[in-house]
Amino acid sequence: MSDTQVPILNNKQIQQKIDRMAYQIWEDNLGEKEIVIAGIAECGYVLAKRVKQVLANISGIKVDLMKITLDKSSTHLKADTDFPVPDCSNKVVILVDDVLNSGRTLAYGLGVFLNVPLKKLRTLVLVDRSHRIFPVTTDFTGIELATVLKEHVDVSLGEESGSDSVYLR
Question: Which of 112, 117, 126, 157 is the most buried if burial means most Cβ atoms within 10 Å?
Fold first, then answer.
């Protein structure tokens, strides 16, 4: 595997993708008064915060933010949230992650809501690599990349540095 990095998205392009996805969420939920955006830690949560901010600025929808921390090494669903999952009852939930590769992380994220009667559950990813093993799909996608399995997508949403980037290596 090569150590060279191919730039895919820069700071401005990532913000454009976030803006577009926020508008799509708004269009998909025009009649809603409140939705929950659930970001999968770490990078998915940072992305969720940014989508929430844009959505709050463009719409009158009340947006609650949830952080989901998964144990991805476990063969069973082990998840912690910073927002009570039962409070999502009869609401629209947007599940957010940075990259969709095999679908395992999103599938685990979906599992958090299996015992809660939701109005609607949607998924959002910044990069969709289309190498799914699990039967998950995305409703809102920043960019879809045709990659080979050996390649890796690095998403950096620099909270401290303020510099965002997506690279293929």
Answer: 126
Kindly tell me the sign of the dihedral angle through the C-alpha atoms of 10, 15, 16, 20.
positive
- Summarised one tens digit per residue, pLDDT across range 43-58 is 999 999 999 999 999 9
Closest CA to 94 of 25, 14, 24, 144: 25
Question: Strand 6-9 and strand 164-168: pairing?
Answer: antiparallel
pLDDT in tens, 70-90: 997 777 888 999 999 999 999
Rounded to an integer, what distance in angstroms lies between the CA atom of residue 161 and that of residue 153?
20
Could you give the 3-state DSSP secondary structure of residue 87? helix
Give φ, ψ of 35 to 5 degrees. -135, 165
* Spans of all domains in the chain: 11-158
Spacing of C-alpha 76 from chain mean position: 21
Fold of 11-158: Rossmann fold (3.40.50)
What SS3 string covers 21-77?
HHHHHHHHCCCCCEEEEEEECCHHHHHHHHHHHHHHHHCCCEEEEEEEEECCCCCCC
Q: Measure the CA–CA gap between 30 and 42, rounded to whole angstroms.
A: 29
